Amino acid sequence: MESSGGDGGGGGGGSNVPEDANDHKIHRLSCGASVSCGIPRPVDPLLIDFAFAADCPGTQSENAGKEEPCAGCPNQQVCATAPKGPDPDLPAISDRMSNVKHKILVMSGKGGVGKSTFSTQLSFALAEMDYEVGLFDIDLCGPSIPKMLGLEGQDIHQSNFGWQPVYVESNLGVMSIGFLLRNQDDAVAWMGPRKNGTSDENISIVKLLKSTGIDGAIIVTTPQQVSLIDVRKGINFCKMVGVPVLGVIENMSGLRQAISDMRFVKPSESGETDVTDWALEYIKEKAPDLLSVLACSEAFDSSKGGAEKMCHEMGVPFLGKVPMDPQLGKAVEEGRSCFNDQKCSASAPALKQIIEKLIKHSKTS
Question: Among 1, 48, 293, 300, which residue has the least CB neighbours within 10 Å?
Answer without folding.
Answer: 293
